[in-house]
Amino acid sequence: MPISRINNNSIANNTIVASDLAAGSVTGDKLGLTAINANNIVNSTITTTQIASNTISNTNIATGAIENYSRATGLLSGMRNRIINGAMVIDQRNAGASVTNINGNVYPVDRFIAAGAVASKFTAQQNAGSVTPPVGFTNYLGITSLSAYTVGAGENFNIRCYNEGLNTADLGWGTANAKTVTLSFWVYSSLTGTFGGSINNYSFNRSYPYSYTITSANTWQQISVTIAGDTSGTWNTNNSGSLCVFWNLGCGATNSGPAGSWSSNLYIAPTGATSVVGTNGATFYITGVQLEVGSTATSFDYRPYGTELALCQRYYQAFFGPTTTGIGNGSTNVNDVVIPLFVPLRASPTMGSCNGAAFTSSAYNTFTSVTPTVVLNSGVFISTNQLRLNFGSVSGVTDNRIAGIRVDSNLSISSEL
Amino acid sequence: MYKLRKTIYSDNSFIEDILFTNNSKQYSIPFDPANTDYQQFKIQVLAGAELQDADGNVMTQEQANAFIATLP
User: Fold this and answer.
1) At what angle do helices B36-46 and B61-69 cross, to 10 degrees?
2) What is the ipTM score, two decimals?
3) Which of A49, A270, A362, B69 stands 20 to 30 A from A205 (CA)?
């Protein structure tokens, strides 16, 4: 029988099984290039014993195939998530206590700002309401409306977080090579309807409103929004702010715009978004915030607690307790007080007031509400782990003699964006 | 309200900062363009926020604008 007489039509399904083939009788030259695909291979039939050394090279693997699989299964970690404290675990300032919004910024958890045009319209708190977080999370940021406030045309209320330019420079935003990103988060609200937010640059002259729908009240729901990178505008790539993500809690017409496209206007919310502050007692909870390169929301990028805390401390840290020494200047100043930093700061910091004591070998005087000054000319505040301060308005020190400073309350050190 | 502070050392050198009160707590802002509170200080003063000199005298808007213009 001529060899050409045997083809696919000549062999009924299942007439040739493995036991009919001698070992080594089927070789590569008897198989068409596309003859074997995933459908022809039973799970687990190919193991390492069937693959000779060095037979799989880069040319045998489609570009991105392994990377995409790793992302989808959460195997890649580190800084896949550009959002710091997206699981709302770190709260250095409040230790879980509630804060009420002011006409300005407050930080209910690290790296996340709660802001509003009018004070006292909502509270923000880690784990407010004590509901069970979504599976895999232990914390969330909770907003509770304090009234039924009608938001004015030029007013807005929101949660937002800034990203530093050094951490988003690779996105290439503001260039023709701008990368697509995906924002994902878990949300839970007593309200249903269309919600939203926006992504803005640091100058607030580029914005991308996004919208999402909460379909069931008081139910955790994961939201995913894919955003084509902005090829226009200025997106900082240094230690200044670059990319700001907003979650709208109430926004007037002036800062509301069409969802799904970039604009040079300052839009904070999509047009028609639900106002959380418009309903007394309304709640809005959020956690698992992730911003990543690509068009797919992957599993949350969990980082070790210590790593997440250190990332937050680049922008805020508190000093408490340890005694440090300086040099008396006159009788009311202590100069050159050097305190340790947990990690180097983003920039020279704003210092909060503190209580404590100044002392010498023969005197001990407590002080309250003293606000130290950062000594800028030393240059030690950025590249090393220490901060040089001057404590004024103290008493009992001796000029040009050693003096000690003990801080008895949290001394806030902030270089937030 | 912002207030300038100048601390003079024994050798007549000095350091300066900006005092700011928010939510009943006082803060010291450095003259550093990378500091966000410093950026806000300049914006707010130019928009009319009160600025006092180191002696506690309230600057006129014209004086405040002129001072801001000298800053980095």
Assistant:
1) 140
2) 0.94
3) B69
